[in-house]
Amino acid sequence: MITTCIFDAYGTLFDVAAAAREVAGEPGREDFARHWPAISEKWRQKQLQYSWLRAITGDHTDFWTVTQDGLDWALEAQGLAGDNALRDRLLALYWQLSAFPEVPAMLMELKAAGMNTAILSNGSPEMLSGAVQSAGLSDVLDDVLSVESVGIFKPAPQVYDMVIQRFGCAKSHVLFVSSNGWDAGAAAGYGFETAWVNRAGDPVDRLPGRPHHELKDLTAIPALVAR
User: Fold this and answer.
1) Strand partners for 118
2) Per the confidence metrics, is the pTM higher than 0.85?
3) Domains located in the chain, CATH noted
4) Closest Cα partner for 160 from 142, 140, 145, 141?
5) What is the pLDDT of residues 195-222, one digit of tens each?
6) pLDDT of residue 217
7) Please, which pLDDT band fits residue 29 given cuts at 50, 70 and 90?
8) Band of residue 7 on the pLDDT scale cut at 50, 70, 90
9) Cα(first)–Cα(last) distance of the chain, in Å?
10) Residue 8 bears catalytic tag
11) Which one is catalytic: 8, 15, 62, 183?
12) SS3 211
């Protein structure tokens, strides 16, 4: 029986492409608008890659640093390095990422059903607090858990341990939800029931752990835990 629903933040609850998309539509950003999809994709790829590499090497820093480093790489790769105003605007908007449309109602339904709800994220506490408040989700989340408490990024098992320590539940009573296939796979290997929100229609990652459920968005999560 599922009692606790845990969500990754970036890409799962919050749209990581929202910052670049919004800037692309602003007046005077025509050059950026031609590049924004590639920049957004490369920014996210490098952000994740840097978190994995730092976890492997033991050279931890907070997620805000890898977010900035990933953006700098992406801007340089697209020939837009040196535009400090653009960089500052993109980073400012990252603190106010919009939630996907189905998120508020989905979380409200889980809370009405008596579920524990929380975020478990690589994000720093300050970043996560900004995103949660901006999206108006504070009242439908019991907690926001950041890897900064353990000093290593996902998918290290110490991160998933935080859920058990916080809620005192068995692993089998947790539904862990992520848009990252590697995250859902690692959490499945850890012992959680997992749902992969595969918005892009990607293949399943070739990893030891495999997600138990594959969804197109978060709408079906309340029905999944109620079955």
Assistant:
1) 6, 143
2) yes
3) 4-14+97-226 (3.40.50.1000), 18-94 (1.10.150.240)
4) 145
5) 999 999 999 999 999 999 999 999 999 9
6) 98
7) very high
8) very high
9) 9
10) yes
11) 8
12) coil
Instruction: Supply the pLDDT for residue 117.
Output: 98
H or E segment and range at residue 19: helix 18-24
pLDDT in tens, 142-151: 999 999 999 9
Give per-residue pLDDT as tens, 73-96.
999 999 999 999 999 999 999 999
Strand partners, 177: 7, 195
Burial (Cβ within 10 Å: 0-12, 13-18, ≥19) of residue 168:
exposed
Looking at residues 179-206, what average pLDDT do you find?
Answer: 97
- Annotate 145-157 with b (16+ C-beta within 10 A) or e (fewer): bbbbebebbbbbe
Residue type, 6: I
Contact 68, 51 (CB under 8 A): no
Largest alpha-carbon pair distance within the chain? Answer: 53
Distance CA 104, CA 194 (A): 20
pLDDT given at position 227 = 84
Rounded to 5 degrees, φ, ψ at 121 are: -140, 155
Sorted by sequence, the CB contacts under 8 Å of residue 201 that are 6+ apart come out as: none
144 beta partners = 119
Phi, psi of 208 (to 5 degrees): -60, -40
Whose tokens are 């890898």? That residue is 66
Q: Indicate the helix (H) or strand (E) that contains 146.
A: strand 143-146
Among 218, 112, 127, smallest CA distance to 175 is for 218
Give the angle 35-218-165 at the CA atoms, nearest 5°.
105
